[in-house]
Amino acid sequence: MQYKSKLIILIVGIFFSFNQANAYLSAPNPNKYNHPKEIWDETNIETIPDDWYVFAIRDKLYLFDDIVSKKIIHQAAFLDKFKVLKKDGRFIFVEKYDDQTFKGWGNIENFIILPHALRTNNKITYKALLVNRLKRIKGDLNKVVPLRSPSLNARSFGSEIKILEFANIYSFFPNQNNPEYILIGKHDIFFPKFKYNTPYSAEKVFLGWVPAERVLIWNTREALQPNNKRKHPIYYFNKKSDLKSYYQTNKNDSFPDCTNISSCSDKDNLLVISPDTNNKIDKTQWPFDAFRYAVIEKGDIDDPIHIGIPNAIPPVIQAIEKSIPTGRDVVFLIDATKSMEKFIPLTIQIAQKIMHDFREQEKIQKKEMYNSNFDLHNDLRFGIAVYRDYECQSDVFEILGNLTDNHNNIESYLHNIETTICHEIEGDPAYYPEALFRGIKDTIFALNWNDTAMKQIILIGDAGNNSRAQDQLSPEKIANHLVQKNISFNAIQIINDPPDYAFESAQKLFCKDIRHIIQFISQEELLTAMTYEKQGLLIKDTDYSFIKNELQLVLDRTSDNTCCSYNSCCPISQSRWSLECLQIDDAYEIKFSKEIEDKIQQFAIQLYETKDLLEKIRFKDKIGFLSNPNSHNYSFRPQLMIGVLKDLIQKLGINIAIEKYPDKKQTPELIKSLGINELNKYLNESPEFFTDAYVMYRRPGDSYQNDPDQFEKMILFQKKEIENLLRPLHHLRSKFHCQIHPENIETIWKEFMEALIGNQFSHEMGQLDQSKSFKDLYEKQYGISLRSTHPLLKISFQQISQNLSGFKSGTLEKLGSYLCDCHVNLKKLYHNGEYFSMFGQKYIWVKASMLP
User: Fold this and answer.
1) Which of 309, 500, 571, 750 has the fewest CB atoms within 10 Å, measured from its CB?
2) CB–CB of 585/497 below 8 Å?
């Protein structure tokens, strides 16, 4: 009896385990369903023999006790893994993968229910290209921070994503028509069964939620790039109506404006990006990894095509105001410690002489530019600041006079300099060294600098830095501040016969500190120049060579600081950052009249002519473009038209005015000022903006029918897709020697059809839709037309496998030869093509003309 009881218990246990193992719903067929919404309301779901795994689509996903009361019993986190036990309308009853006590009902829309990204009816995966739209950008211009939930206050998830990286779209929130956030992943598929954090598991594939305003949604794989063989300029129109009007009335390629476009209502907003011109058609080879002009809206080849332009760059904002940096701000930063007391009169004379010569040089320059009717109001401003020792506490740094163009005020500021000794004891290691770094840092951040002016600090002192452990400032940090604020830095060291070894050491320390600052500045600027060169911002190679040589020369001169061990001052001249040495003895006042005055005049001229070594990159050609809209342009890094930038400034200004000054009258001047200031911040980070435009694939007009197309169609392929196509082609060549006949065509065709579908999901094999032809699957899977017109490519798999009596052997031979030719072309492309990587996946841009 005991044996029978145990047997019954064992049988019940087995039955119960069997029931539990089969209690979960089967997963929907991922090859059938392209979008989760196809399943939400479906009662008869086509399934595969796998358990249905789903994942929480966000943090704070609530599970309910039942559908009616909706009493919350559990809270799930982003990407928590569940199995589905029941489905009731738009609710599913789920059980946590690793905790059978964690169960409840949840809205099906709050789960990731398919193991692939969203797809169109043609099986094309929705892609998200990260961009900067022409509007106010919140956060980093060059990166996007993915989130765990579609919410402004959500926590971040994973690494930042760079602008112009693209990913696959898995969900829209709150809906696809008007999304606020988009869920993206590295790959177009993931494997629900895979263990936590293994390759292709959900945790490894999903990147997180990103704001929809930072995304270009691309649901084709087609893009355009200008044809290097084109004969006509390409114009990128803001409005489709203006494009149509232009080509209806213009038989030549005259530049579009309101005189030749009947529909024109705003001459500043006709074109979106800078165009080609008759004599300057850009035929530069595009970089292999540059993102092409995505086709947003497909249409007939002879109709206007709507394209996205993700890498447009703005001309510098100063160009919108039709000027290079507005004015010049110069601050004299003076050592006002006791050791400088007898040299303060000399310091005042140096400053006066520099200011006088600056004004004279400014007048000469303005006269050359304007010939007459000019003044220096607000163009040339001076300020005075002093620094002392850290023991001076609140007086360690003092602004004697903020930046002003008032000559009399500056003179009075200079004569207010007072030296101070602050409770110092002789023999103290910091007796001679001063708060040098603190003085420079406070000058950078405390003065009333004009953001759009050329900024310059002229330091006059005699001893180096000793922070007395009261701050963490270093030459590297000071250099970084100067670079970030784009301030020129020039030091004049007063050298006098030292009364003792301590003062001699302090003088040598000044030399060493200043040279270190200049060394770190040149390192940062050299890296910036290299970045500009990689980004294609340099118009000519010679620009980069010149800039690199100049920066490297400064770097070389400052790398060896041993001279500061032997000499009190080692000058570095003829650059934007300089150290000049002025040797003075106690009788300098007698000799000042000639020798010293001449040397100061040389300093003044040199300091006035100092310029940003990267100015060629930042301003050259971009400013020229504004006065001449026909200047040269690079289509893979096109410049936004000025009308577009003016609109952007207006939008930015209004947005910020409403946010920051809701009670203030929003005058046009305020809006423009706020907008320019905001765009200036963007420009410091070298942004790339996304915009869209309308273009013509072919130049309209009967007389141009035989001319090359304006664009080439490009198709984005993953390397694995080419591998899938190569597999059956290689089999056809190696096993069947390119011969197709009735006995082997079913085997060959099945391999081709499976290759077109791809082998992401093992259950798809053997479930081919036999009513589909090669052409049907090719065009559905790739979203592009099959170029070959061979009749066998158009008939169904079922017909091919059952009856080929209507086809002659010659027809089959031609098909075999055609497919083997495709094998040669694809193999060459596969091995020799230029791939680029995105989140570990290899991609390649393929000309549509190379495909079957």
Assistant:
1) 500
2) yes
Phi and psi torsions of 815, nearest 5°: -65, -45
3-state secondary structure of 261: coil
pLDDT tens column, 235-276: 999 999 999 999 988 888 888 888 889 898 887 789 988 887
Asked whether residue 201 falls in the same domain as residue 239, the answer is no
**Cβ distance 600 to 332 under 8 Å?**
no
Token code pair at residue 384: 């005075």
User: What is the Cα–Cα distance from 421 to 440, expressed in whole angstroms?
Assistant: 20
Give the count of domains, the chain: 5
Q: What pTM was estimated for this model as a whole? A: 0.58
Q: Cβ neighbours of residue 633 under 8 Å, at least 6 residues apart? A: 273, 274, 275, 276, 280, 282, 625, 639
767 and 747 in one domain?
A: yes
Model confidence over 67-123: pLDDT tens digits?
A: 999 999 999 999 999 999 999 999 999 999 999 999 999 999 999 999 999 998 877
Alpha-carbon distance of 672 to 419, in angstroms, equals 44
Co-location of 278 and 210 in the same domain: no
What is the signed CA dihedral for 623, 624, 630, 633, rounded to 10 degrees?
Answer: -60
Query: Which residues sit opposite 127 in a β-bridge?
Result: 168, 218
Q: Which two tokens stand for residue 609?
A: 């002519």
| 697 occurs within a structural domain | yes
Sign, CA dihedral 404-407-409-414, equals positive
Cα 379 to Cα 383: distance, rounded to the nearest angstrom: 13
* Separation of alpha carbons 625 and 639, rounded Å: 9
